[in-house]
Every structure is written in C-alpha cells, then in structure tokens.
Automatic annotation (TrEMBL), chains A, B, C, D:
Domain of life: Bacteria
GO molecular-function terms, A-Z: DNA binding; DNA-binding transcription factor activity
One Pfam family per UniProt: GntR
Entry keywords, A to Z: DNA-binding, Transcription, Transcription regulation
Name of the protein: GntR family transcriptional regulator
Keyword DNA-binding: yes
UniProt xrefs under Gene3D superfamilies: GntR ligand-binding domain-like, Winged helix-like DNA-binding domain superfamily/Winged helix DNA-binding domain
Keyword match rRNA-binding: no
Coiled coil residues, start to end: none
Originating species: Mycolicibacterium confluentis
Length: 245, 245, 245, 245
DNA sequence: GTGGTCTAGACCACA
DNA sequence: GTGGTCTAGACCACT
C-alpha cells in the first residue's frame, strides 16, 4: 500500500518572482494582447500592475529583450516596444504541439464544467435568470451585426464581453458557487486569450446561444447541455482549423 | 467594457516554499492519502520527496501542527502522526442540516467533474492506468472483506485511502491536469467530514468500482460515466438518509 | 529541614541561542543603549557581534518586532529601528500612582546597589575606568548644553544614553559581575518608563556626576557613595514631585 | 558615541545541556555536597532531578568519570561513587585563585544587599516581623547549644537552616520584593555551599544575630546595618582564614 | 546594500 | 534514528 502514498507528495519548486513576470508578459505577447509595434506600459506601471518592484520588472524585461520579443529604448520617449517575432519553423511546430495539448485540455475542461452547469441551469433557472440572459442575447445580436457591418473593433470587443457574460450567466443560473467559479476560471484562462488571438467573431455563435437559452427556458437539461457542448465544440473546431493552417 | 483585456497582466505573488509544502501536505491529508493514526514520512524523507530542505519542511510541519492536523513526537520512534479531526457527531449533523445547500452543491460539482473525468478516462486510459486501477481495486477488496470480517478500523482506514486513490486514479487517466485538480478539490472538501462522520463502509462501493473500471477498460465512455454518476448518487443518498434520521 | 541541601542539584535548562539574543537586545534597549529612533546594527553586523548566525538573529528580531520594541524596514536604507514605546502620559501617571509602592521599592533598590557599587568602585577603579567615565562625562556635557541650547531631541536622547552608560560604567569599575547585573537590572526597570515620561533633562545631573567621579578618582569610597545616594534621591524627588502635580 | 554601543552587545554562547549538568555536578562534588565514598543518586534519579534525559546524564557522568571525580560501577549494586580527589598542588592553587575572586565578589555583593536590607528593615519592621525573628533566634540558640554539646550533625543542619531563615526574615522586614530576591539569591549561591564545605558552626554567630535584631527593634538603621556588615565580615574572615591554611 | 528565504550539513537531546 | 536547533552561505526582492 505504500506505493499509494508515493504519488501523494510531489517535489515543490518555488518560482522566482521575475520568472513569473516573464511568463505573464511572454504569454500576453504570444497571445497578441500586445501587438508588434505597440508600446508596453512603462516600467513603473508594470511594477504596479504586477505588484512587484521595478527591479523585478527590469529583470523580466531583460530576459524578454534577450529573447528578441521586445525592444528597450532609453531616455525621453523611450520605453518597451513589442518586436515582430522572427519565425523559426521548427520552433513554431514545437510551440504548436505544446499548445495543442493545452488547448485540448482547456476545451475538455470547459465542456465538462459548462455543459454540467447548463444541465443544472435548465433545471433551476428562475425568471430573473432568463430575463438577464435574454437581455445579453439581444445585446450580442446588436453588437454582432454592428461589428460585421462596420468592421468595428469596438463592437467586436463588446460582443466578446457580452458573450462571456452570457456563459457566466448560465453558470449563475445553475446556483452552484463552486461551479460558477470553475466556469469563470475555465473561461478566464482560455477564452480571453483565444479571443484575443483571433480578434474576430464566430458569426453563428448567436444561433447557438439562442438555442441553448431556449432549452434552458423550456427546462430541457439534456437538450441544453447537448447544445452547449455543440457550441463549444464548434469554437474548438474553428480554433483547430486555424492552428492547422 | 474594454477593460476585459486589462486582465492580460495580473499581480504576481511569489509563494514561499514552506507554504507550497503546507498546501501539498494539507491536500494529501484532506484527500485521505494519510489517515488519522498513520505516521507521515520522517522530516528527512519529506525533505527528499518534496525536494526542499529540512528547515522548509519544519516550517510547514509547524503550521500543520498548530492547526491540529498532525501531532509531533520526538525521539526514537517519534515522528509525525496524523491526528483524528475532532468533531462531535451531533454538532456535525446540525452543521450539515444547516448546510444542506452546501452538500447539494458539493455533490453536484463532484458528479460533473468526476463523470466528466471518467468519460475522458475511458477514451484515454493506458495500460499503466488500468494496472494501477486494478491494483487499487484488489486492495480495496481485501481491505473491505477484512474490515467487515474483523471489524478492523485499520482496514476501514485502508479502504478509504484506496477508495480516494481509485477515484483520483481515474481522473489521472483522463490526462487533464486541470480536471485532476478539480476532482481532487471536489473530493477534499467532502472527504474529511464525510469520511469522518461515517467512519464506515459502503459495502457495495466495490461493485460500482468494478463496473466503472470495466467500462473504462472496454473504452465505453458513456457507460463508464453513467456508472460513476450512479455510484456518486448512491453515496449522496446514503448521506442524505443519514441526515434525515 | 534537611531538604535545604536538596537544592544542591537543580533542574537544568538549555536556553536557545535566539532567546539569549533576545535577552541581550532587550536589555540593551531597556538600558537605553539604543534609543527610540536609533538604527540598530544590521542583521549581518549583529550576527557578527553576537557570534551567531543570521538565522538566529532573525529569530530574535522577530520576537522584538512582535513586541513592538523595534521596527523592521526592508530594502536599501532599511534595517531595524528602535520604536518609541507607546504610552499615554495621563495613563502612566495613574499607573504610577497606583504603583507608588513599586517606585519606592525600585528607588530603594537602586540606592542600595548603586551606592554599594560606587563605594567599591572608589576603591578599585583603574585608569581605564576613569578615562572611560571622563569621556562619558564630557559627552554628557556637550549633549546637555546642545540639548538645552537647541531644544534638540536627539541630544536629549544622547544625554540619556550617556547617562545610562556612566552609571553602568561605575558599576563596571566595581569589578563585580553580580553587582553589575544588579545595577543593570535596577536601571532597566526604571529606565524606559521614567526616561520616556520625562523625555527631559535634569540640568544639574552633571554636577552630581562630576562630584561622584571626583570622589571615585580620589579613592574616597564613602564620599562617592554619599554623592551617588544624593544624586539618586534627587531624581527620586523630581519624579515624586511630578507624580504629585 | 558609537563606542558606547560597542559594549552593549556581547557574544552569545549556547551551552549544551550535558555541560550544564557537568557543571552542576562538579560544583556539588567540589563543594562537598557529596563526599568521597558517597553514592550519587541513580542515573534515573539524576535525570529526574535535573530534568534532562538519561542520555544527557550519561554524557555528563562520562566526563566526570574521565576526570576521576566519580567511579562508575555497572550491574546490580552498581552506580556512581564519589572518588577521593587526587590533589595536584598547582591545580589547587589555580582553583584557589579562581575561588578567591569569586568569594570576594560574593561577599561584597552580600554585604551590599544584606546591609541595605537591614537598614531598611530597621525603619520598617512591624511587630509580626519582630516576633518571627525572635522565634528564629531562640530556635538557633537551642540548636547551637545542642549541636555543640552533642556534636550532632542534625542540629548543625538545623542551625544553618534557621540562620538562613533569619537573614531572609530581615530582608522580608525591609518590605521590598526585589531586595528580598537579591538577598535570597546572594545567600543561595554562596551560603549553602560554603556552609556545606565547612559543615561547622560559627559559635558567636548568635551574638551578632541578637545585636542586629536589637538594633532593628530599636529602629536604629545605621547601627543595625553596621552590625550586619560586621557579622558578614566575620564570616568572610573565617572563610578566608581557612582558605589560607 | 538592506532584510527575506532557502539550502545543506552539522550537532544535539530524546526515547 | 527521531525531531530540535544552529550555522554558513547563497540568492532574491526591495528601496
């Protein structure tokens, strides 16, 4: 029985603050949250946002500069500028493989917790939940049409925000705090970055949303859950298609 | 609304190694990987397993001792012993009745993440996973029979430890770290109180376990998930019946 | 009655190094050897002076910080700073009135041990003792005049520190360790509260000091002792007058 | 001014428990509290008395055995036996010099605190104090005469106990707790061992006691103090004479 | 150039 | 052979 315990405790590693900062910044850069040519926040701002000292920010910035991800200019008008990445085919493929697993896991997790939440929501939703969800749906409709018509980045943004709120609203209707947290976490870790990468819309997202809400309203748990799964899988396929390009 | 993306960079916190050690050890205790009365590895062993210095282990142990989770004895034959949590059955029942909602939520959450994990596991399990799960199953079988035959508290303990390991083993076979965390989290919250209250066995638990493992082995995701759901619901009913007494 | 001799062997207690360090530092603080606002030596310096490791110094510092005796600041220009004890003058006076007996006892004790020490010192002082005492006297003179002229809190501080050192210096010249301890103990108990309450000077203190030192230098034990007694009684009267206001 | 601080903190040394035990036992042996041929308490008893583990006692005993101060015999009827010391002239002289200073200091200290206490007692004694002291005086008288007449060790013991109580009673009459502690400490550290060395009486001790008590009763502080000083100096001379033999 | 934390290794007291 | 304490030295984050 002692080998049961063997897996109970695993080595611990304390990660230096500047590495954490490097990770965060690299992630933000790789996910396109800052685009080539953009200026990053100043050292002082970064220190404040990340809640570390400027020394630590500098250490992180030095690493990123060495990696060629950002350029540092000194003096007045200086600052950190995002560099256009220099592609290396082999490196890209490795990156892709690494991401492939992470994306698979993220989607698997999202499907599990979001369909679970949707199923419960269909059984427990109250009038107020429905009102809220309908309102969000209308908002998304408007944002989507405007965004497509005007190629408006602002409306794209709005759509994404409302989309997020809609999914969280469903989790809220499930009336289970832990589940709500799990859904929020799953989305926070994945959807925002992914949304940021593509910075574009899934035109038929609202059709799914409507169908899901209808099933929730009609108290059809399995149907609602199935539609949510389909919706998420659709997004997954969009992303995987992009990754295969 | 545009501040949705502001979360691109979030505050960084460097977690002291001894806190990480506390977290790991507390998790192991809460998951029943070490049971009341068990002796933990020695300071020196823990230091090696966790790959930290004895000093760091000691800092963590001091916290756990202050929390009453473990007892420390010196000298030859000394060491760290898992303490039985102190509770008063009547008080626990009152507490639980007050928290009926919390129990419902905990089970809902468990069902979602554990059935999800089981479904994935059925698709992904490897030979090594099956071996491990079979071994645990056999261990539980022995422990269960011995426990029933001899009214042995130690074998009851063993059974519960193995039970926990079995469920986590399935989550591990799903090969999704976040999901594994979620399952561990779901279980840890119920484990100590529930295991402690009952301190007794669900005699047919192993039938479920066997059926689940069979479905996983045969790569039947839906069947495995359905059986896992049934198993958890059975436990839920046992508990709810106890609360209604 | 025969158990009088039983005390031949008494329980032994090994005192952890960090407690010894706490004791030393607390004593130095209570004797005014470091004054509120002063910076203590750095961690590394303390470790060297006390001949212990930094770890041990830190353990002691943590205690003193928890007790509010010192403040800890990090970073360049950081370090340990002596905290001004917090007290409320009105409250102190009430406290003192209630403890009139304690003050009487403290002064009685101080007179006994300090005059005793002075008497011995007059017989045993060496050149080095005299040099040291003269130096302290000159320092007090400067501090006193500057403090009076400039109303300088820092020089008041200096004066008090030197005053304490002068009295202890006399005890040291008596060349009796137990007596030195007794004098230090007698002073430490009065020092912080009294020095803190008044935070002011006894302008003629230096006249006494000079007269005492002269008698010690001239090897006149009884004269030296008498002058010390007079000096302490003067302080006693100052305090009692304040308490009667 | 920084050289004032220089003396404030001195190196710290943590003394291993077994060294403390060695010191205590060696002191007891050197002071004759156990005499050659006597059997020491058993290991277990020593461990209990000294509040340390048997291991530690053994470590101490090993040192003392190596030094030839005690003999260790094993098995039934075994134990620790005090050895007759083998004198080494040079060593004795060093010892003597070491003690000379310690004895001088101890007497100086005793004189200071005991005469101080006596002076105060003469001013503050109450009827109850006098009663108690008279009673002790009468007891000493009896013990002294019996001891002298019968050469009774028991009555010598009794005398010493009462003597101690008498001196402490005076300190008590001074009504100053700190002073009482100081007197008790001075006596505990010196008088008992010294009494033990000589194991004999100062026949005229009671004359001093009577004279002191009379002065206290008559409220004559200076007279009382002077007589106490004379009394202690008499003892001092007796001891110094013995040391010079 | 300060305090904060950890490491590796030693010695000790304990049972 | 266990936990309890200390040391020496390193690296880190802060200011």
């Amino acid at each position: 029985m002692s080998d049961v315990h063997a897996s109970a405790l695993s080595p611990v590693r304390q990660i230096p603050a500047h590495e954490l900062v490097v990770d965060q910044m690299r992630l933000a850069l790789e996910l396109g949250q800052f685009r080539p040519g953009d200026r990053l926040p100043t050292e002082r701002e970064l220190a404040e946002i990340l809640d570390v000292s400027r020394t630590t920010v500098r250490a992180a910035v030095a690493v990123l500069e060495r990696e060629g991800l950002i350029a540092v200019r000194r003096g007045r008008g200086g600052g950190f500028t995002v560099q256009a990445p220099v592609y290396d085919a082999a490196e890209m493929r490795r990156e892709f493989r690494r991401n492939k697993r992470a994306i698979r896991d993220a989607f698997d997790y999202r499907i599990i917790v979001e369909t679970g939440a949707t199923r419960l929501a269909a059984g427990r939703r109250r009038a107020a939940d429905l009102n809220e969800l309908h309102k969000l749906l209308r908002g998304m409709d408007t944002a989507l049409h405007t965004a497509l018509a005007e190629q408006s980045a602002q409306h794209t943004n709005d759509f994404q925000t409302l989309d997020s709120a809609f999914h969280l609203g469903i989790a809220q209707a499930a009336q289970n705090d832990r589940l709500l947290d799990a859904v929020a976490d799953a989305r926070r870790r994945m959807w925002l970055p992914v949304g940021a990468i593509f910075g574009r819309l899934e035109p038929n997202a609202n059709d799914y949303h409507e169908a899901i809400l209808e099933a929730i309203e009609n108290r059809e748990p399995e149907l609602a859950a199935a539609r949510m799964e389909e919706h998420i899988n659709d997004t997954r396929q969009t992303i995987e298609a992009w990754l295969k390009r």
